[in-house]
Every structure is written in structure tokens, then in C-alpha cells.
Here is the input.
Amino acid sequence: MISVIIPTHGRRDLLAHTLDSLREQQSAPEFEVVVIDDGVDPELGAWVASRDTGLTIRVVHHEVNRGRSATRNTGIAEARGDIVIFLDGDMRVVPGFVAAHAAQHVGNNTVVLGNIVTAPELGRSAFVDYIDSRGVKKIAPGVEIPARYFMTGNSSSAADLLRRAGGFDEEFNEYGGEDTEMGYRLAERGGTLRYAEGAVSYHLDLNSVPRMANRLRRYGERMLPILVRKVPRAREDLGLHLAEPNTPGAPWSLRVKRWMVRLLCRRLFWLPAAHVAEHWPRALRVDALFDFVRAAAYLDGYRHSGGEGR
Here is the structure.
């Protein structure tokens, strides 16, 4: 038995595509769908019930908005399956999606990352090519997937492992950090990450590069200090130590890197670069440009937060 947990936040138009694609699953084990409305749409349950999906669906409504972590924890509490699939409510999945996740699960310590791809109808660009090649897709076959690569947009875990890990930390009440922190805790409890290339979900919503950068800037300032406080090793895993002030006795190479980061990781530089990247020709794709925008934005936020311990 598998439980597919879908958080949603007022986008019935996108959720309709998600549910319709789950209706088309082939060769899948028995599965249920748990939709959690995070305090936005109290009539969502009636709307879902009115649709002829043929799925076993339960809709849970939060009276107030509680955030990403709490919404997923509600889903975990409601789930009846031995395996929990996390799927964002702005995804359309392929017919073999559930089966591809299920095929990777062995025992009670398996964590599976699916394959998120930008929906073809949104068009292709240098930025789309870039984001479709990030995350677990950067890891060579056969290489152990680091815990920090865990993400909830398209992933699955043994339900027992999730409960042993204690669910998502609800101190992460804005965008980002909650899945990374959970990835570390899953690994500490014996979880091993695997990649299911066939578990494809098409992302139906696309941020602009400047919007992504501004979101990462806030994530760096608001959520990354919490992550570092809870998981100190994340400080170096994510390169956050480079945004900290130089200290006496630090190696010369580290001092130079910190000086460069503190000079360049400013809105003065990363925001114009984001606008350039937004219109960068696909034929001249330069990943380093997008890497700079992403890293500079969240390092800028982390630098302004005061870092660890906030």
C-alpha cells in the first residue's frame, strides 16, 4: 500500500492536472491519495469529491496556514501506506510514476528521489535546461547520493523511516530548508537515497530567474541559519562558511574565498546577473552564470542573517 501526499495552496487548476495524471497510473500497487489544503480553500474537499477521478482520495483542511513542514506532517499522520510518496500539487506525472517509486523500495530504510522535469508546454530556455539538470541528476550513476539532496517535490520514503525520524521540523515555516534537514535525519537513521529516473513528474509552474533569486535570498537569511543550528555539518556542505567573516588564523586560501564571496555576493551583482540569465540564449548556455545567481543570492541572505545561531 502506498500513500501519495499532495500539499496544495489554492491552485485547483494545477491540482486538477496532478489528480488526472494519477488516475492514469499503470502497473501500480494499490495506492491512496491524501491532499492537504493549507488553510486556503475550505471547499476543496467538496470540489475533489465532485470530480470523477476514480482514485481513493482524502482531503484534509488546515483551518489556518501552517506552512510546508506542518502540511507534510499532516499527510504523514493521515497516511495508511507502507510507503509515502511526496508530490507537489503543481506536477503532472507519467503513467509509470507510482510503479517507478515502488520498484526502488527494499526494506524500511529506502528513500527515493524522482525525476522532476519542466513541463514541455512551458517552453525551453537556457534556464529550463539548467534547472532540469540540477539536484540528483548531477550525481554520477553508482555514486552515493548525499543526504542534502533529499527534496519533497517528488520523492518517497518508507513510512516507518519517516516516523522514526520524527517528521518534518516545523520551525522551518517559510520556503526551504525543511527537506534538506529531513534528509540529514533520514540518513542518520539508516536511510539510503536512490534515484528513480522513471518516476517523472512534469513541473507545471516556472519561476523567472529574478524571482528565484529573490526567493533564495530570503531563504538564505531566514531558513539557512536554522538549518545550520540544527545540522552544523550543513554549514560546510552548502558552502555557507564562505560567507562568514574572516577570523585570525584562517588559511590564506579560505580568507581569499571569503573576501571574494563577501565582495560579490550582493544584490548589486546577483540581481542584474539574474535579469541577464533570464534572457540568456539557449544555444549559449553557461551553467556558471546560473550557479552564480543561485549561490550569490542565498549566500547574500546568509551573510546578512549573522549566520549560525540566529
Q: What stands out?
A: The longest strand covers residues 192-203.
